[in-house]
Amino acid sequence: MFINNNSFPSCLALEYQHDALHNHFRSVAHLPWAMLLSSGHATHPHSRYDILVAEPLATLCTTGEHTCITQGEVQTTHQDDPLALLAQTQAALLPNLPAHPTLPFLGGALGLFGYDLGRRFEQLPEHAISDISVPDMAVGIYDWALIADHQQQTLTLLSHGDIYARWHWLLAAQESYADRAAEEMPFTLTSEWQANMSAAEYQQKFDQVQAYLHAGDCYQVNLAQRFSADYQGSEWQAFERLNASNQAPFSAFLRLPQGSILSVSPERFLAVEQQQVTTRPIKGTRPRHSDPISDRAEAAALTMSEKDRAENLMIVDLMRNDIGRVAVPGSVSVPELFIVESFPAVHHLVSTVQASLPDTCSNTDLLRACFPGGSITGAPKIRSMQIIDELEPQRRNAYCGSIGYLSCCGRMDTSITIRTLIAAQGRLHCWAGGGLVADSQWESEYQETRDKVAKILPILSATPCEPSKSNSIAMASEAQDEPQTAHASAPQDGTCTLHGDNSGDESRHDAHTEPQ
Prior knowledge:
11 helices, Anthranilate synthase, alpha+beta, 14-stranded antiparallel sheet, twelve-stranded antiparallel sheet, 26% helix, 29% strand, 26 strands
Protein backbone atom coordinates (compact mmCIF):
# COMPACT_ATOMS: atom_id res chain seq x y z
CA MET A 1 0.00 0.00 0.00
CA PHE A 2 1.32 3.44 -1.01
CA ILE A 3 0.62 6.43 1.24
CA ASN A 4 1.52 10.04 0.49
CA ASN A 5 0.35 13.48 1.53
CA ASN A 6 1.85 16.94 1.63
CA SER A 7 3.03 16.70 5.25
CA PHE A 8 5.08 13.52 5.32
CA PRO A 9 7.50 11.64 3.09
CA SER A 10 6.06 8.95 0.86
CA CYS A 11 5.44 5.69 2.71
CA LEU A 12 5.23 2.17 1.32
CA ALA A 13 3.74 -0.52 3.57
CA LEU A 14 5.55 -3.85 3.10
CA GLU A 15 4.98 -7.35 4.42
CA TYR A 16 6.21 -7.56 8.03
CA GLN A 17 8.77 -10.13 9.10
CA HIS A 18 10.55 -9.88 12.44
CA ASP A 19 13.99 -10.23 10.80
CA ALA A 20 13.23 -8.18 7.68
CA LEU A 21 15.65 -5.36 8.40
CA HIS A 22 18.52 -7.67 9.26
CA ASN A 23 17.90 -9.53 5.99
CA HIS A 24 17.87 -6.28 4.02
CA PHE A 25 20.84 -4.81 5.85
CA ARG A 26 22.95 -7.88 5.15
CA SER A 27 22.94 -6.89 1.48
CA VAL A 28 24.04 -3.28 2.09
CA ALA A 29 26.26 -3.76 5.16
CA HIS A 30 29.40 -3.25 3.06
CA LEU A 31 28.38 0.26 1.95
CA PRO A 32 29.98 3.25 3.70
CA TRP A 33 27.37 5.06 5.80
CA ALA A 34 24.97 2.10 5.89
CA MET A 35 23.54 2.01 9.42
CA LEU A 36 21.14 -0.19 11.36
CA LEU A 37 19.51 0.57 14.69
CA SER A 38 18.26 -2.76 16.04
CA SER A 39 15.99 -3.56 18.97
CA GLY A 40 17.82 -6.88 19.27
CA HIS A 41 14.65 -9.01 19.14
CA ALA A 42 14.65 -8.51 22.90
CA THR A 43 11.81 -9.20 25.32
CA HIS A 44 12.18 -5.69 26.71
CA PRO A 45 9.58 -2.91 27.01
CA HIS A 46 11.70 -0.58 24.87
CA SER A 47 12.48 -3.06 22.08
CA ARG A 48 10.12 -1.76 19.43
CA TYR A 49 11.78 -0.36 16.30
CA ASP A 50 14.48 -1.36 13.84
CA ILE A 51 15.68 1.41 11.50
CA LEU A 52 17.81 0.93 8.37
CA VAL A 53 19.43 3.77 6.42
CA ALA A 54 22.11 4.15 3.74
CA GLU A 55 23.24 6.59 1.03
CA PRO A 56 22.89 9.84 3.04
CA LEU A 57 22.29 13.24 1.51
CA ALA A 58 25.24 14.59 3.49
CA THR A 59 27.70 13.44 6.15
CA LEU A 60 29.41 15.20 9.04
CA CYS A 61 32.69 13.91 10.50
CA THR A 62 34.22 15.66 13.49
CA THR A 63 37.79 14.99 14.61
CA GLY A 64 39.18 17.29 17.24
CA GLU A 65 38.40 20.90 16.37
CA HIS A 66 37.42 20.25 12.74
CA THR A 67 34.16 19.07 11.20
CA CYS A 68 34.12 17.96 7.56
CA ILE A 69 30.73 18.23 5.85
CA THR A 70 30.40 16.23 2.63
CA GLN A 71 27.47 16.70 0.26
CA GLY A 72 27.91 14.97 -3.06
CA GLU A 73 31.30 15.97 -4.43
CA VAL A 74 31.54 19.07 -2.24
CA GLN A 75 33.49 19.02 1.03
CA THR A 76 33.80 21.91 3.47
CA THR A 77 35.67 22.07 6.77
CA HIS A 78 34.47 24.04 9.79
CA GLN A 79 35.57 24.77 13.34
CA ASP A 80 32.14 25.71 14.67
CA ASP A 81 30.22 23.71 17.28
CA PRO A 82 29.63 20.31 15.59
CA LEU A 83 26.11 19.95 17.00
CA ALA A 84 25.19 23.40 15.70
CA LEU A 85 26.57 22.41 12.29
CA LEU A 86 24.49 19.24 12.44
CA ALA A 87 21.29 21.16 13.15
CA GLN A 88 22.04 23.66 10.37
CA THR A 89 22.79 20.94 7.81
CA GLN A 90 19.66 18.98 8.63
CA ALA A 91 17.49 22.10 8.45
CA ALA A 92 18.95 22.97 5.04
CA LEU A 93 18.24 19.53 3.57
CA LEU A 94 14.96 18.39 5.16
CA PRO A 95 11.74 20.12 6.25
CA ASN A 96 10.61 20.33 9.85
CA LEU A 97 7.63 17.99 10.14
CA PRO A 98 4.99 17.23 12.75
CA ALA A 99 5.29 13.90 14.52
CA HIS A 100 3.91 10.79 12.86
CA PRO A 101 1.51 8.68 14.97
CA THR A 102 3.59 5.49 14.63
CA LEU A 103 6.83 6.18 12.75
CA PRO A 104 9.60 7.58 14.99
CA PHE A 105 11.99 8.63 12.22
CA LEU A 106 10.88 10.61 9.17
CA GLY A 107 14.36 11.33 7.89
CA GLY A 108 17.09 13.29 9.61
CA ALA A 109 20.39 12.76 11.39
CA LEU A 110 21.54 9.28 12.39
CA GLY A 111 24.95 8.10 13.54
CA LEU A 112 27.67 8.16 16.17
CA PHE A 113 28.47 10.74 18.84
CA GLY A 114 31.70 9.40 20.31
CA TYR A 115 32.74 9.94 23.92
CA ASP A 116 35.56 12.24 22.85
CA LEU A 117 33.08 14.63 21.24
CA GLY A 118 32.69 15.80 24.84
CA ARG A 119 36.07 17.50 24.50
CA ARG A 120 34.30 20.14 22.37
CA PHE A 121 32.01 21.01 25.29
CA GLU A 122 34.28 20.60 28.34
CA GLN A 123 37.94 21.38 29.01
CA LEU A 124 39.81 18.08 29.37
CA PRO A 125 43.51 17.17 29.52
CA GLU A 126 45.28 15.39 26.67
CA HIS A 127 46.85 12.44 28.52
CA ALA A 128 45.11 9.48 26.86
CA ILE A 129 46.43 8.29 23.50
CA SER A 130 44.21 8.61 20.43
CA ASP A 131 45.00 5.42 18.50
CA ILE A 132 41.74 4.69 16.62
CA SER A 133 40.88 6.54 13.42
CA VAL A 134 37.07 6.61 13.90
CA PRO A 135 35.86 10.26 14.15
CA ASP A 136 34.54 11.84 17.34
CA MET A 137 31.25 12.40 15.52
CA ALA A 138 30.13 10.56 12.38
CA VAL A 139 26.57 11.37 11.34
CA GLY A 140 24.64 11.13 8.09
CA ILE A 141 21.58 13.13 7.03
CA TYR A 142 19.16 10.62 5.50
CA ASP A 143 16.04 11.29 3.43
CA TRP A 144 14.78 7.70 3.53
CA ALA A 145 14.55 4.77 5.93
CA LEU A 146 13.19 1.26 6.25
CA ILE A 147 11.46 0.86 9.63
CA ALA A 148 10.14 -2.25 11.38
CA ASP A 149 7.68 -1.74 14.24
CA HIS A 150 7.75 -4.97 16.24
CA GLN A 151 4.84 -3.97 18.47
CA GLN A 152 2.48 -3.15 15.60
CA GLN A 153 4.17 -5.75 13.35
CA THR A 154 4.52 -3.35 10.44
CA LEU A 155 7.29 -2.77 7.93
CA THR A 156 7.43 0.66 6.28
CA LEU A 157 9.68 2.18 3.65
CA LEU A 158 9.63 5.98 3.71
CA SER A 159 11.36 8.42 1.39
CA HIS A 160 11.42 12.11 0.58
CA GLY A 161 12.50 11.11 -2.94
CA ASP A 162 11.30 8.48 -5.42
CA ILE A 163 10.09 5.73 -3.11
CA TYR A 164 9.71 3.09 -5.82
CA ALA A 165 13.24 3.73 -7.05
CA ARG A 166 14.44 3.22 -3.48
CA TRP A 167 12.46 -0.03 -3.13
CA HIS A 168 13.91 -1.38 -6.36
CA TRP A 169 17.38 -0.36 -5.13
CA LEU A 170 16.88 -2.47 -2.01
CA LEU A 171 15.68 -5.43 -4.07
CA ALA A 172 18.65 -5.11 -6.44
CA ALA A 173 21.00 -5.03 -3.45
CA GLN A 174 19.54 -8.31 -2.21
CA GLU A 175 20.02 -9.93 -5.60
CA SER A 176 23.60 -8.69 -5.79
CA TYR A 177 24.34 -10.03 -2.30
CA ALA A 178 22.96 -13.45 -3.22
CA ASP A 179 25.53 -13.60 -6.03
CA ARG A 180 28.51 -12.71 -3.82
CA ALA A 181 27.47 -14.24 -0.45
CA ALA A 182 29.46 -17.43 -1.02
CA GLU A 183 32.63 -15.37 -1.52
CA GLU A 184 32.25 -13.38 1.72
CA MET A 185 35.04 -14.15 4.17
CA PRO A 186 33.67 -15.41 7.51
CA PHE A 187 34.52 -13.39 10.59
CA THR A 188 37.31 -14.90 12.68
CA LEU A 189 39.74 -13.64 15.28
CA THR A 190 43.38 -14.09 14.28
CA SER A 191 44.84 -13.38 17.72
CA GLU A 192 43.89 -13.71 21.36
CA TRP A 193 42.27 -10.85 23.25
CA GLN A 194 44.75 -8.50 24.91
CA ALA A 195 43.69 -6.22 27.78
CA ASN A 196 45.23 -2.75 27.96
CA MET A 197 45.92 -3.19 31.67
CA SER A 198 46.79 -6.17 33.87
CA ALA A 199 45.00 -6.90 37.12
CA ALA A 200 47.90 -5.30 39.00
CA GLU A 201 47.70 -2.18 36.82
CA TYR A 202 43.94 -2.04 37.32
CA GLN A 203 44.47 -2.22 41.08
CA GLN A 204 46.98 0.63 40.90
CA LYS A 205 44.53 2.81 38.96
CA PHE A 206 41.76 1.79 41.37
CA ASP A 207 43.93 3.02 44.26
CA GLN A 208 44.49 6.33 42.47
CA VAL A 209 40.73 6.75 42.08
CA GLN A 210 40.29 6.01 45.78
CA ALA A 211 42.80 8.74 46.62
CA TYR A 212 40.77 11.24 44.57
CA LEU A 213 37.53 10.08 46.20
CA HIS A 214 38.89 10.45 49.72
CA ALA A 215 40.38 13.84 48.85
CA GLY A 216 36.91 15.06 47.89
CA ASP A 217 37.61 15.53 44.17
CA CYS A 218 34.60 13.43 43.23
CA TYR A 219 32.00 10.95 44.49
CA GLN A 220 32.20 8.37 41.72
CA VAL A 221 34.52 7.64 38.77
CA ASN A 222 33.83 5.21 35.95
CA LEU A 223 37.07 3.33 35.18
CA ALA A 224 37.20 1.13 32.07
CA GLN A 225 39.65 -1.25 30.45
CA ARG A 226 39.97 -2.14 26.77
CA PHE A 227 40.32 -5.57 25.14
CA SER A 228 41.77 -5.81 21.62
CA ALA A 229 42.35 -8.58 19.08
CA ASP A 230 43.22 -8.96 15.41
CA TYR A 231 40.49 -10.20 13.08
CA GLN A 232 39.61 -10.87 9.49
CA GLY A 233 36.36 -11.28 7.60
CA SER A 234 32.88 -9.79 7.80
CA GLU A 235 32.22 -7.35 10.64
CA TRP A 236 28.49 -7.71 9.95
CA GLN A 237 28.75 -11.45 10.66
CA ALA A 238 30.37 -10.59 13.99
CA PHE A 239 27.50 -8.27 14.82
CA GLU A 240 24.92 -10.91 13.95
CA ARG A 241 26.55 -13.30 16.41
CA LEU A 242 26.65 -10.66 19.12
CA ASN A 243 23.07 -9.61 18.45
CA ALA A 244 21.78 -13.18 18.73
CA SER A 245 23.53 -13.70 22.07
CA ASN A 246 22.88 -10.34 23.73
CA GLN A 247 19.35 -9.35 22.67
CA ALA A 248 20.02 -5.75 23.63
CA PRO A 249 17.27 -3.18 22.98
CA PHE A 250 19.65 -0.43 21.78
CA SER A 251 21.86 -2.39 19.41
CA ALA A 252 23.40 -0.86 16.30
CA PHE A 253 25.75 -1.52 13.40
CA LEU A 254 27.39 1.47 11.70
CA ARG A 255 29.57 1.14 8.61
CA LEU A 256 31.84 4.17 8.46
CA PRO A 257 34.64 4.89 5.98
CA GLN A 258 37.15 4.62 8.86
CA GLY A 259 35.77 1.43 10.42
CA SER A 260 32.67 -0.25 11.79
CA ILE A 261 30.80 0.13 15.09
CA LEU A 262 29.16 -2.97 16.59
CA SER A 263 26.97 -2.09 19.57
CA VAL A 264 24.79 -4.31 21.75
CA SER A 265 23.89 -1.68 24.31
CA PRO A 266 21.16 -2.18 26.91
CA GLU A 267 21.08 1.51 27.90
CA ARG A 268 18.97 4.39 26.65
CA PHE A 269 20.60 7.81 26.88
CA LEU A 270 18.13 10.48 25.74
CA ALA A 271 14.73 10.02 24.11
CA VAL A 272 12.49 12.93 23.11
CA GLU A 273 8.87 12.74 21.99
CA GLN A 274 6.59 15.79 21.87
CA GLN A 275 9.13 17.79 23.91
CA GLN A 276 9.14 15.21 26.70
CA VAL A 277 12.63 13.87 27.47
CA THR A 278 13.42 10.54 29.12
CA THR A 279 16.75 9.11 30.21
CA ARG A 280 17.28 5.70 31.84
CA PRO A 281 20.75 5.52 33.41
CA ILE A 282 22.19 2.12 34.37
CA LYS A 283 24.35 1.86 37.45
CA GLY A 284 24.61 -1.43 39.33
CA THR A 285 25.42 -4.88 37.91
CA ARG A 286 25.24 -8.52 38.93
CA PRO A 287 26.10 -11.60 36.79
CA ARG A 288 23.44 -14.00 35.46
CA HIS A 289 23.38 -17.69 36.47
CA SER A 290 21.97 -20.77 34.75
CA ASP A 291 20.50 -21.96 38.06
CA PRO A 292 17.19 -20.08 38.50
CA ILE A 293 17.48 -19.90 42.28
CA SER A 294 20.99 -18.43 42.13
CA ASP A 295 19.91 -16.08 39.36
CA ARG A 296 16.97 -14.72 41.35
CA ALA A 297 19.22 -14.37 44.39
CA GLU A 298 21.63 -12.19 42.39
CA ALA A 299 18.76 -9.97 41.21
CA ALA A 300 17.43 -9.67 44.76
CA ALA A 301 20.89 -8.83 46.09
CA LEU A 302 21.22 -6.07 43.50
CA THR A 303 17.83 -4.67 44.49
CA MET A 304 18.84 -4.47 48.14
CA SER A 305 22.45 -3.36 47.70
CA GLU A 306 22.99 -0.04 49.49
CA LYS A 307 26.23 0.50 47.57
CA ASP A 308 24.59 0.03 44.15
CA ARG A 309 21.60 2.17 45.14
CA ALA A 310 23.95 4.94 46.25
CA GLU A 311 25.89 4.77 42.95
CA ASN A 312 22.66 4.80 40.96
CA LEU A 313 21.28 7.75 42.92
CA MET A 314 24.46 9.77 42.28
CA ILE A 315 23.96 9.38 38.53
CA VAL A 316 20.23 10.08 38.77
CA ASP A 317 21.04 13.37 40.50
CA LEU A 318 23.68 14.15 37.86
CA MET A 319 21.21 13.52 35.02
CA ARG A 320 18.52 15.57 36.78
CA ASN A 321 21.00 18.43 36.92
CA ASP A 322 22.12 18.06 33.28
CA ILE A 323 18.57 17.89 31.93
CA GLY A 324 17.45 20.64 34.31
CA ARG A 325 19.87 23.03 32.60
CA VAL A 326 17.57 23.14 29.55
CA ALA A 327 14.21 21.76 30.82
CA VAL A 328 11.10 23.67 31.86
CA PRO A 329 11.75 24.73 35.48
CA GLY A 330 10.16 22.36 37.96
CA SER A 331 9.39 19.68 35.35
CA VAL A 332 12.19 17.20 36.17
CA SER A 333 10.89 14.03 37.84
CA VAL A 334 12.07 10.50 38.71
CA PRO A 335 9.15 8.13 38.03
CA GLU A 336 11.27 4.97 38.48
CA LEU A 337 14.10 4.40 40.91
CA PHE A 338 16.20 1.25 41.39
CA ILE A 339 14.48 -1.08 38.90
CA VAL A 340 16.27 -4.37 38.17
CA GLU A 341 16.34 -5.31 34.48
CA SER A 342 17.78 -8.62 33.33
CA PHE A 343 19.83 -9.22 30.19
CA PRO A 344 21.58 -12.38 28.92
CA ALA A 345 24.87 -11.70 30.73
CA VAL A 346 23.96 -9.47 33.66
CA HIS A 347 21.27 -7.93 35.84
CA HIS A 348 21.29 -4.11 35.83
CA LEU A 349 19.91 -1.50 38.22
CA VAL A 350 18.05 1.15 36.19
CA SER A 351 16.27 4.40 37.03
CA THR A 352 14.22 6.82 34.92
CA VAL A 353 14.44 10.62 34.78
CA GLN A 354 11.89 12.65 32.81
CA ALA A 355 11.31 16.32 32.07
CA SER A 356 9.53 18.73 29.73
CA LEU A 357 11.53 20.78 27.24
CA PRO A 358 10.57 24.31 26.23
CA ASP A 359 9.85 24.90 22.56
CA THR A 360 13.05 26.94 22.37
CA CYS A 361 15.18 23.89 23.28
CA SER A 362 16.27 21.81 20.29
CA ASN A 363 17.40 18.21 20.46
CA THR A 364 20.97 19.30 19.79
CA ASP A 365 20.71 21.75 22.72
CA LEU A 366 19.64 18.86 24.97
CA LEU A 367 22.38 16.58 23.68
CA ARG A 368 25.02 19.24 24.27
CA ALA A 369 23.79 19.88 27.83
CA CYS A 370 23.93 16.20 28.79
CA PHE A 371 26.86 14.86 26.79
CA PRO A 372 28.45 12.48 27.53
CA GLY A 373 26.03 10.54 29.70
CA GLY A 374 26.68 10.68 33.42
CA SER A 375 26.32 6.93 33.94
CA ILE A 376 29.65 6.36 32.20
CA THR A 377 31.64 9.27 33.61
CA GLY A 378 30.96 9.64 37.30
CA ALA A 379 30.13 12.62 39.48
CA PRO A 380 30.86 15.47 39.34
CA LYS A 381 31.08 14.90 35.60
CA ILE A 382 33.90 17.20 34.52
CA ARG A 383 36.29 16.19 37.31
CA SER A 384 35.50 12.52 36.69
CA MET A 385 36.24 12.94 32.97
CA GLN A 386 39.57 14.56 33.82
CA ILE A 387 40.49 11.60 36.03
CA ILE A 388 39.39 9.13 33.34
CA ASP A 389 41.65 10.84 30.81
CA GLU A 390 44.53 10.65 33.27
CA LEU A 391 44.13 6.95 34.16
CA GLU A 392 42.84 5.18 31.04
CA PRO A 393 45.75 4.61 28.61
CA GLN A 394 43.79 5.24 25.40
CA ARG A 395 40.88 7.47 24.49
CA ARG A 396 37.47 5.84 24.53
CA ASN A 397 36.47 6.91 21.01
CA ALA A 398 33.00 5.43 20.30
CA TYR A 399 32.80 3.67 23.68
CA CYS A 400 30.64 5.50 26.25
CA GLY A 401 29.41 7.94 23.62
CA SER A 402 26.02 7.61 21.97
CA ILE A 403 24.36 6.20 18.85
CA GLY A 404 20.94 7.29 17.67
CA TYR A 405 18.78 9.54 15.54
CA LEU A 406 17.47 13.10 15.56
CA SER A 407 14.42 13.05 13.30
CA CYS A 408 13.17 16.04 11.34
CA CYS A 409 9.83 15.53 13.13
CA GLY A 410 11.40 16.43 16.48
CA ARG A 411 11.77 12.93 17.89
CA MET A 412 15.11 11.69 19.16
CA ASP A 413 16.31 8.41 20.60
CA THR A 414 19.89 7.62 21.57
CA SER A 415 21.82 4.94 23.39
CA ILE A 416 24.82 4.93 25.68
CA THR A 417 27.45 2.98 23.75
CA ILE A 418 28.39 0.43 26.38
CA ARG A 419 28.88 -3.18 25.17
CA THR A 420 30.21 -1.55 22.01
CA LEU A 421 33.09 -2.58 19.75
CA ILE A 422 35.11 -0.79 17.08
CA ALA A 423 36.50 -2.70 14.10
CA ALA A 424 39.15 -0.69 12.28
CA GLN A 425 42.31 -1.51 10.34
CA GLY A 426 42.15 -5.21 11.17
CA ARG A 427 41.83 -4.62 14.93
CA LEU A 428 38.77 -5.19 17.09
CA HIS A 429 38.39 -3.21 20.31
CA CYS A 430 35.92 -3.80 23.16
CA TRP A 431 35.63 -1.98 26.49
CA ALA A 432 34.13 -2.66 29.90
CA GLY A 433 34.07 -0.51 32.99
CA GLY A 434 32.22 0.33 36.16
CA GLY A 435 31.58 3.09 38.66
CA LEU A 436 34.02 3.26 41.57
CA VAL A 437 32.98 4.77 44.91
CA ALA A 438 34.67 5.04 48.29
CA ASP A 439 33.55 1.61 49.53
CA SER A 440 34.31 -0.25 46.28
CA GLN A 441 36.60 -3.31 46.40
CA TRP A 442 39.07 -3.60 43.54
CA GLU A 443 38.69 -7.37 43.06
CA SER A 444 34.90 -7.24 42.65
CA GLU A 445 35.09 -4.17 40.39
CA TYR A 446 37.72 -5.84 38.22
CA GLN A 447 35.58 -8.97 37.97
CA GLU A 448 32.52 -6.90 37.10
CA THR A 449 34.26 -5.61 33.97
CA ARG A 450 34.78 -9.23 32.90
CA ASP A 451 31.16 -10.15 33.65
CA LYS A 452 29.98 -7.35 31.37
CA VAL A 453 31.77 -8.85 28.36
CA ALA A 454 30.73 -12.43 29.15
CA LYS A 455 28.38 -12.45 26.14
CA ILE A 456 30.80 -10.62 23.84
CA LEU A 457 34.41 -11.78 23.88
CA PRO A 458 33.74 -15.56 24.04
CA ILE A 459 31.09 -15.28 21.31
CA LEU A 460 33.57 -13.71 18.93
CA SER A 461 36.36 -16.07 19.95
CA ALA A 462 34.34 -19.05 18.69
CA THR A 463 34.50 -20.10 15.05
CA PRO A 464 31.33 -19.48 12.98
CA CYS A 465 30.51 -23.20 12.77
CA GLU A 466 31.43 -23.91 16.40
CA PRO A 467 29.62 -21.46 18.73
CA SER A 468 31.10 -20.67 22.11
CA LYS A 469 30.08 -23.23 24.72
CA SER A 470 31.46 -21.33 27.67
CA ASN A 471 32.19 -17.83 28.82
CA SER A 472 35.94 -18.25 29.20
CA ILE A 473 38.14 -15.78 27.36
CA ALA A 474 41.54 -16.64 25.99
CA MET A 475 43.72 -13.67 26.85
CA ALA A 476 47.23 -13.12 25.57
CA SER A 477 49.78 -13.34 28.41
CA GLU A 478 47.13 -14.72 30.73
CA ALA A 479 46.62 -18.28 31.99
CA GLN A 480 44.47 -20.33 29.64
CA ASP A 481 43.26 -23.02 32.03
CA GLU A 482 41.61 -20.96 34.78
CA PRO A 483 38.38 -22.75 35.81
CA GLN A 484 35.04 -20.93 35.69
CA THR A 485 33.65 -20.06 39.09
CA ALA A 486 30.49 -18.48 40.35
CA HIS A 487 32.19 -15.85 42.49
CA ALA A 488 35.82 -15.65 41.44
CA SER A 489 38.16 -12.91 42.57
CA ALA A 490 40.48 -11.34 40.05
CA PRO A 491 43.92 -12.91 40.55
CA GLN A 492 47.03 -10.77 40.56
CA ASP A 493 48.29 -12.18 37.27
CA GLY A 494 45.24 -10.91 35.40
CA THR A 495 43.76 -14.33 34.59
CA CYS A 496 40.40 -13.77 32.98
CA THR A 497 37.56 -15.53 34.79
CA LEU A 498 33.96 -14.99 33.78
CA HIS A 499 30.99 -16.15 35.78
CA GLY A 500 29.72 -19.48 34.42
CA ASP A 501 26.87 -20.08 31.98
CA ASN A 502 24.81 -16.88 31.86
CA SER A 503 21.89 -18.37 30.00
CA GLY A 504 19.38 -17.65 32.75
CA ASP A 505 15.84 -16.59 31.95
CA GLU A 506 15.21 -13.16 30.50
CA SER A 507 12.54 -12.13 33.00
CA ARG A 508 12.52 -8.53 34.18
CA HIS A 509 12.54 -8.05 37.95
CA ASP A 510 11.10 -4.74 39.17
CA ALA A 511 12.03 -3.61 42.65
CA HIS A 512 9.03 -1.37 43.27
CA THR A 513 6.71 -1.42 40.26
CA GLU A 514 5.06 -3.81 37.86
CA PRO A 515 6.73 -4.26 34.45
CA GLN A 516 6.13 -1.43 32.04
